[in-house]
Structures are given as C-alpha cells and as structure tokens.
Amino acid sequence: MWRRVALFSPMMKKSSSSRSLTLNQKGFGLKVGESFATEIINPEEGVSPPKEKAPFITFVLGGPGSGKGTQCERIVETFGLTHLSAGDLLRREIAFNTKNGAMILNLIKEGKIVPSEVTVKLIQKELESSDSRKFLIDGFPRTEENRVAFERIIRADPDVVLFFDCPEEEMVKRVLNRNQGRVDDNITTMKKRLKIFEALNRPVIDYYENKGKLYTINAVGTVDDIFQQVLPIFSSFEQLKECRHVNPKSPLGSSLVENSS
Ligand SMILES: Nc1ncnc2c1ncn2[C@@H]1O[C@H](COP(=O)(O)OP(=O)(O)O)[C@@H](O)[C@H]1O
Ligand SMILES: Nc1ccn([C@@H]2O[C@H](COP(=O)(O)OP(=O)(O)O)[C@@H](O)[C@H]2O)c(=O)n1
Ligand SMILES: [Mg+2]
C-alpha cells in the first residue's frame, strides 16, 4: 500500500531522515516490504515525485501496566489513529488456535518475547489491509530484535515514540487489578515481565532517545492528567489535524477538522 521513492540528490543531507526521503502512494494488494522497495530517481530525468506523504507511525512503549492501552484509546478518540496492539494481535492467534497459537501462549505465560518474525508479520498484515494513514503500534518494539525486524520487513521508521514511564510498584498494582482474565496478569509472571522489560526494552528506549524521537510521559496520575502530557505531542503534527473521530470533550476538539471518510 505504500511506495518508498528515494530522490538521488547531492543536496540531500544525511540528517534528512527516511521521512523526508519517503514519498508514498496507496496501492492495495502490494506487500508492505515490496511497496517500500527503494527506487533511485534522477531528478534531471524529470520524474516528479508522488505527493502523498508516508504513513504516520507511533510506537507506544512502557512497562506492563504503565497505561499504554488506556492512553492509546484516548489518542484514537482525539486524533483518529488506528490502534494496533502487538499483545492483542498475539492473543488473537491464541484465541483462533492458529499454528503459532500454542507457542505464543507458552511464551506469554512466561512473560517472554515472541519471535520478532511472528509479531512483525502480524503487524504487517494489519498495516497492509488498513485504509488508514496513521498508526499507533502499542507494545512494540519490545526488544532490539523487534525493532530491527520491523525495519527489515516493513522498511519504515516511527515518527514518534511514546514512553510511559511508571514506577514498578504502580505497574504491579495496576496489573494485579486489571481484571481482564489475562494469563500473564499474576505476580509470578509480572516479576518476570518487569525483568525482561528492564533488560530488553530499555535499550530500545535509549535508541530512540538518541535519535531524538522519544517522548517520555510521566505515567503516574489520573488518565486525564497523563493524556494532558500526550496531547501537545500529537497536536504539533500537521497530518494529524484532519481527524476522523473528534472527541467533543477534547481541548483540541474545536480546532480539529472533522473528516467523515
Ligand atoms: N493513570 C492510571 N491510573 C490508574 N490506573 C490506570 C491508569 N491508566 C490505566 N490504568 C489501569 O491500569 C491497568 C493497566 O492499564 P493498561 O492500559 O492495560 O496498561 P498497559 O497496556 O501498559 O499494560 C488497567 O486496568 C487500566 O484500567
Ligand atoms: N512486541 C511484543 C508484544 C507483546 N509480546 C508478548 O505479549 C505479552 C503481553 O503484551 P502486551 O503488550 O499486551 O502487555 P501490556 O504491556 O499491555 O500489559 C508480553 O508480555 C509478551 O509475552 C511479545 O512477545 N512481543
Ligand atoms: Mg496493553
């Protein structure tokens, strides 16, 4: 559905990220990886680049129970992004008893990370079949291996990386009260998940901090308080101002343009 075209120009600075090198078109039926295949175009040949911009991608990071899913719901209401929860996609495989279902269940019970290829392929399927141009990818990348696999298979970089920073004590309290019948919401698995978060997710957080893409949110407080920190991050992006689902209660509600498509 997207097409990546690189303009071959000596004027292009190295600091121009893939966003400024990326010009995408819709094209249903194309595989994401293929559709991102880089073409080198010589501007002197007079090929004019397509006008559509790359899809807007946000990664949502944070420990278990830090409030990622809850805040994603608020972001969807206000800015109309499409929410893809990596955990929900994996749990769907378990529910549908697919060929990877049993393996995924065993890993989730142990708080371990599912092989990146499996998770990225599930995300890829959702991206390809969606008509949306703006995505919240929640609970991903959980590891450097996840991050690298996304870059390799999807060939896209996030525009924004949110990190919900929450003390362990608070995360434990929230998870043990979550009450969604999840096999991993128990103290034994939670302890393992916290260790895995520190060991494997921290390097990803550091990576995006060094790239200048990380927005750290203090995840303690009411859901509203926390969303007040999230709002200005998204409202600064022009492409999010055309919103499909305007929440009338949102402080931005009146300034957003409703789009019924
Ligand atoms: N700011 C908050 N204060 C208290 N509880 C919260 C807050 N945000 C979310 N919760 C609750 O904590 C639990 C975990 O939140 P969730 O959004 O599922 O976190 P995550 O997706 O990061 O694991 C849920 O029961 C949710 O209702
Ligand atoms: N990128 C991911 C995301 C989740 N998972 C697995 O799914 C579990 C639940 O993830 P989740 O994102 O739904 O969990 P929360 O942080 O929302 O509590 C994780 O503990 C992992 O076992 C994974 O392996 N890889
Ligand atoms: Mg969640």
From TrEMBL:
Cited Pfam families: ADK
Cofactor note: Binds 1 Mg(2+) ion per monomer.
Protein keywords: ATP-binding, Cytoplasm, Kinase, Nucleotide-binding, Nucleus, Pyrimidine biosynthesis, Transferase
Matching InterPro entries: Adenylat/UMP-CMP_kin, Adenylat_kinase_CS, P-loop_NTPase, UMP_CMP_kinase
This protein's record includes keyword Magnesium: no
Coiled coil: none
Subunit organization: Monomer.
Domain free text: Consists of three domains, a large central CORE domain and two small peripheral domains, NMPbind and LID, which undergo movements during catalysis. The LID domain closes over the site of phosphoryl transfer upon ATP binding. Assembling and dissambling the active center during each catalytic cycle provides an effective means to prevent ATP hydrolysis.
Membership in a protein family: Belongs to the adenylate kinase family. UMP-CMP kinase subfamily.
Protein name: UMP-CMP kinase
Native source organism of the sequence: Arabis nemorensis
